[in-house]
Amino acid sequence: MNHSESETIMIIIDAEPYEFHLEPAxxxxxxxxxxxxxxxxxxxxxxxxxDVSLLxxxxxxxxxxxxxxxxxxxxxxxxxxxxxxxxxxLPIAKKLRGNPTLSIGDKSAMGRxxxxxxxGHDIIPELYPIAGEPVIDKPGKGAFYATDLDxxxxxxxxxxxxxxxxxxxxCVNTTVREANDRGYDCLVLDDCCGSYFPEFQEMGLRxxxxxxxxxxxxxxxxxxxxxxx
Length: 229
Ligand code: TIU
Description:
The chain is α/β, with parallel strands linked by helices. It has helices at 36-39, 44-47, 53-56, 59-72, 92-96, 149-155, 168-181, 198-213, 221-228, and strands spanning 11-13, 20-22, 27-32, 75-81, 107-108, 111-112, 135-138, 160-166, 185-194, 217-219. Helix 4 packs parallel to helix 9 and helix 7 (168-181) packs parallel to helix 8. Residues 33, 38, 81, 141, 166-167, 170-171 line the site of tricarbonodiimidic diamide (TIU).
């Protein structure tokens, strides 16, 4: 691949706390855990008493952004939170936390909860990966923990991440913090991130952009789509 021409392209994106200098050749769209168990009625998230509509409002904007990224050849990476069928990578603390009636590995309406290969663990049909888009299966909240994401990004020359996904304060925040410590610039897209808790949605984003962008930037997908197309 010849980077020399595309590397010079830099687009100024309106963001907080200040403008983001997007370099498409060095950027990747990172879509975190848009899985049926978190987003669909009858899934794990709803079984815990959560209102999945608060997450589902992210699907339309993320789908539009994904289409724009694919159209211009921007790198796209998906993640899924989940465990091996034998649960050998599931810490007992994670299994037992909250004393749930239904926990990871148990049978639910969409198969065994957060187990790789099960229906509920997979990515929602609206955002399903296509050939050439890596899918990172992660056992933790952060997408860098116990995965090859960092290697994949470094090998592809990626230094900037456009971050979407669920939930804002859990897997999105954890991943952005991990990325920040590894030297990546993260632009988190507020309309493409969702939380079951409106107050955590707001604070999860404010924590990223506070103190001059202590963990990164916050923007919106229409600005990225306009810049790419
Ligand atoms: N992907 C992700 O955020 N996993 C979670 O467990 N999120 C919750 O909000 N529970």
